């Protein structure tokens, strides 16, 4: 279903996703809220505006594909799928529980709307390359979107995929890099020699853009520009880890941490949602 | 009738034959087109030949992406580079979602990479893939069986690892011998003093050993266990019950491959004495293939001695 409604209140949608994330992690007593909140605005744009998907037909052959390579941020994806109608929001209560459709990381065989199993970092782009190549071969017009963390592009397979996408001129492949500057252990700068990111993608002949990953207009425009490019596109989205909750923002201890009752209450007040316990 | 000379050529011919019938078959290469003898495939089906370069992890993950969209990829390169370098991609993104990707690992065993040394001798591949849930594991003995096995695995739904050779395999079967996935094949039944289980390109040595033993009055039942997983429990148990002792012969570390697989069936269904001929959990050296196999305990004499040893303990 193509979303032509330009009046969608993306900020409200993103706030809802953020609140869902905090509630899921609080309820499960486990999960990664910081990395989920940093991509909430990108996910809101994708799921409530851009993606050609049909909640009533998750396996629709012509659907756009989405791969959350940084699978540890899956709570925000689960929230988006639930809020898009792929399954009931009640399913989110089962996050990380035995027998639940919502696994600790995305699972294409258990969760409607998940196009690719993911979570082991670095692999999402290669998987997306395969899907985008299949579209070329099958002469399908769908677009494949991948979201990776800036930390995970330290994995070597990412650059194998970058090379391959460029070789095959996969203009139907759009990669978001969630550039929040943090990874599990510490800042990107402290842990690795990755920076600067942009010239590396330029050197691999990708169409490159850098945007504010919390500005809906910039996200939407960047996707439009990416679709016009004859090359595979990377959108380096500068983000704030834990964005939306002051106590989480840029505090890397929230990479994997459970909000207590008081912190949940603050989230409810800040994000303006309903208690969905 | 199809024309090929070694296991790699047989793979290539089978893939071409498959591709002519069904446009879902694609080949993913990690700079392995020539190694796989698949140049003719690429020429006939250029849009179905995906070359990712020397990047096996990417090759396997790309194949997962292709398979998720309904295509049926064959990924072919040296077996160790699939099962070791790209092990995680194979396990997590192909096997876990249960996608149908066919992996063809060439130059398996010390026969495959003998001159290149340990970096190119892959004798853990079958053990690695056997331990991954849901993968079909096949080790055919010669080109004719590879040709048929490549076609057989095209029809199943799920991941497959097929071990092929270097092109120097001995011919064991004629072209018409059928290949039945998941079933053992009794190659020779001289008698029931002991069972001799073998697979892969070393099978010809087991055949020679069985003949030699027969000349010495020791009559074995010789069995090809080309499908290691799922293993033919019923067929193997029946042989074990009949013979009461067994020797396994494999061009693989004795840990993780055929010897372990037969031992497991025996332990659970028919406990008998078993001797395992294969690489004895050590790193081998470079050298001519036959010499390397002889030196590391996989000669015809070693097989004969193993049968005699197991009979003494029967």
UniProtKB/TrEMBL annotation, chain A:
Tagged with keyword Metal-binding: no
Family stated for the protein in its record: Belongs to the transketolase family.
Top-level taxon of the source organism: Bacteria
Cofactor: thiamine diphosphate
Record-linked CDD domains: TPP_TK
Gene3D superfamilies (UniProt xref): 3.40.50.970
PANTHER family referenced in this protein's UniProt entry, alphabetically: TRANSKETOLASE N-TERMINAL SECTION-RELATED (PTHR47514)
Record protein name field: Transketolase domain-containing protein
UniProt keyword Plastid, yes or no: no
One Pfam assignment: Transketolase_N
Residue ranges occupied by any Transketolase N-terminal domain in the UniProt entry: 13-272
Record keywords: Thiamine pyrophosphate
